[in-house]
Fold these 2 entries.
Entry 1:
Amino acid sequence: MAYGFDTLQIHAGARPDPATGARNTPIYQTTAYVFRDAEHAAALFNLQEVGYIYSRLTNPTVSVLQERVATLEGGVGAVCCSSGHAAQIMALFPLMAPGRNVVVSTRLYGGSITQFSHTIQRFGWSAKFVDFDDLAAIEAAIDDDTRAVFCESIANPGGYITDLGAVAKLADKAGLPLIVDNTSATPYLCRPIEHGATLVVHSMTKYLTGNGTVTGGVVVDSGKFNWSASDKFPSLSEPEPAYHGLKFHETFGPLAFTFHGIAIGLRDLGMTLNPQAAHYTLMGIETLSLRMRKHCDNAQRVAEWLEKDQRIEAVTYAGLKSSPYHDRVKTICPKGAGGLFTVTLKGGYDACIKLVDSLELFSHVANLGDTRSLIIHSASTTHRQLTPEQLEAAGAGANVVRISIGIEDADDIIADLDQALARATG
Ligand SMILES: *Cc1c(COP(=O)(O)O)cnc(C)c1O
């Protein structure tokens, strides 16, 4: 039977605990698992039998979360990791090698821009930043050393919507996987795999957990990419020396990427999600659709109110008729444009700083996707490492604040913005 989203967000991957009948998924707070006998241990290490060895690799609580997110995204498998940033490295790791590059959107979470423009160079990898509304520029940026294309579905901080179908076609034509960071949209609003994405990554820190309690990440595999179609992905298609010559694609078929992520990625990079965090995220996901509906309704109301206000120069919310992305929302995020947008203040930098300091209900934090309404001045915080050109391209100029609308009463959110704008603009 094919269940709907609201049912799957509660039940997918979970079953009553076989040992105790516990209805909720227990937190398996254990490092290791007893082997039945020496033969069993060898079979597990050979990946001939699926089971639990050591919690850096797999853990029953984390496994439930992996199956839950994979199901909600329409993927065949998922690997959880310790943060969204860990998930990005875990997604690229099987694909990249020294000298290889990834073509990425200029509109990304600030931390991702830094990770891609500086830190990955330590591995000999590089990123080519392109405006993803310019399809010809993406095509021109792809070269013989490109191994992936990376973008966000709803792009942070502006809430811009990426034309995933068009980008996926380009990646496909070049024989490359498309990786979509679906953090800001969640699978409730957008299912990138249906638009042609190969891999979906999340910071589960945000909407999936939904209440600002944990850091976590996940890589979901569509299972649809043919890793053996070219010689570009030898770690998946050829004998892998790090796993005694195992050919992952030949052995595991559509689950090759997921097995590689556990057997090599988690084993050797160790960016593992702990079972306690997985428990909090599982609890959060149970109410994902309810929260996302309210986030979208609230964001729509607040964005409409702000746009009419004399103290505001512009609001980027894609749910607004004035947004260049308004039509694209209907195909990419048919249930709503999310809870994230930026606001440009007529009073410039000074007004932004005063606004942030004058809000009472809003929290001034470097986070998004919380039940609480949050605000940040990106240019002086999360996007601080960026050059002025990168700031402009990312939609995070000095006169811009990023708002993540919570699920409080919309009237209260608006009242708080009203009083703070009054103080900020004198
Ligand atoms: C927060 C965030 C990340 C990074 O996730 P962490 O869990 O903080 O490591 C990546 N992408 C997007 C869109 C984010 O919002």
Entry 2:
Amino acid sequence: MQLEQITSSQQAIDLEDKHGAHNYHPLPVVLSKGEGVHVWDVEGKKYYDFLSAYSAVNQGHCHPRIVNAMYEQASKLGLTSRAFHNDVLGPYEKYATEYFGFDKLLPMNTGAEAVETAIKIARKWAYEKKGVKETEAQIIVCENNFHGRTTTIISFSNDEGARKNFGPYTPGFLKIPYDDTEALEETLKNNKNIAALMLEPIQGEAGVYVPSEGYLSRAKALCEQHNVLFIADEVQTGIARTGKLLAVDHENVKPDILILGKAISGGVYPVSAVLANNEVMDVIQPGQHGSTFGGNPVACAVAMAALEVIKDENLAENAEKLGNLFRRKMNDYIRNSSIVNLVRGKGLLNAIVINDTEDSSTAWDICMALKENGLLAKPTHGNIIRFAPPLVMNEEELLDCVNIITTTLKDFEK
Ligand SMILES: *Cc1c(COP(=O)(O)O)cnc(C)c1O
């Protein structure tokens, strides 16, 4: 059998359509190369990437330092499993725990696995440290959350598409409105079996919902008051995306459990991690949790390089500065716009809300037009378009992108 050579975008799309499961609805663009803030399609057309693989590629596409770390390590030792030690895991765990300020790290591969890990740790902590009766622990989550795709995680989603016909669902989760301190306080008061509150510091998939100022710090204080763990899912918001190393840093909140994924590898390899201090992490003992690939030498080498790049290239500061510029420029446009209602976000995690119904195709049509004009973005939840370029962008490029976006939007004004 011969391997198919791709010579056109349509050919690649047809192959996926015929031979791949239809679990995504991508924009019809076939990418074959990436460098920094740019990607190229099969025909050689160049685009600004304004999604960054859902904020996995914060360091830019194919960052030479990260790619080199992967190449060097992959050529030396790739996978040992955790049945044996390897000489990269320890140095990585030391580096990452000091970097984020926690005692310990548990390495996994994908965001969903790290979320699952955090749930398991929180439940075990509730039974062994808090004294909750076994099988009765509850975890508070927020409406419109996105934490991944496993059966347990979709059990507490309220996205019909993510949930419907995948039951029976995992029990043990209480859903409250996001950004609602009173609902949180009520739930904590009325239930003695709460192990944890788990939330996204900004709800990314839901449409970049930024909670009101003070929500995260008040939620953390309430958790402390009720001896409940505060779990921050920073898989999308973490690692410089929102203008600080972590989104919780905007409110000086220190989570009891921190979940990282996506950008911890700069997008070149699946790496995720759960961080916590000893009193929480030590509930996990040998044989109680694991992953064949978790903590493998390539993942560790890649993650160290990816984290170094964030600091050495001042990506948090750059995201803060360019994010402010982006929202200012977009607000200038929106003042006289009938098609865009608002722009919101922090750092370089932003979204615009299109003035049309949620089931309209306007946001999709705008993304198609943006693609024609050399910028790739994707609607999230109907009429919202997320804008999250790699953080290695410079001011001139950002202004160029603002120009592409506003010029494109003008064609849609009523
Ligand atoms: C993407 C994401 C996940 C899931 O990560 P995967 O690597 O796709 O499993 C979990 N939480 C949040 C907040 C995310 O954005």
